[in-house]
Amino acid sequence: MIQLIILLGIISIIDFSTKKIPVVVLVVMGIVGIASSFYAKQSIISVAVALIPGIVLMAAAFLTGEQIGYGDAVVVTLMGLFVTADIVCSTMVMGLTIAGTISVILIASGRAGRKKQIAFTPFLLLGYGLTEVFM
């Protein structure tokens, strides 16, 4: 979905440069996502199921003391308004795998410590792109 790619791209740029995701951007993503769900005539049940991975990520953010940011969790939740649960899950897995790999490389090379914060939404964008190509 082009709307999701554009929104993830904008959020990725902001997240990469500031390590924060503005609420106004999340509100816009939510509005566009709701409109997209209605336009695609998705059932309420399929949308609800697609929101679950993001809700689980929000719980993980809470339980880890925000090792995973709430903004990232909200982005994953809102992705469920655009795509199916399997695409959201695949995007998350790919994004986490790529982010983890980059983190290990940064730590091993001495460029970052274990507590270094990295922007996660660029990895979600990459994960979504790879998911769309390979699924």
TrEMBL record:
The keyword Ligase does not apply. One of its GO terms (molecular function) is aspartic-type endopeptidase activity. Residues 4-102 form the Prepilin type IV endopeptidase peptidase domain. It holds the Pfam family Peptidase_A24. One of its GO terms (cellular component) is membrane. The keyword Transmembrane helix applies. It comes from the Bacteria. This is Peptidase.
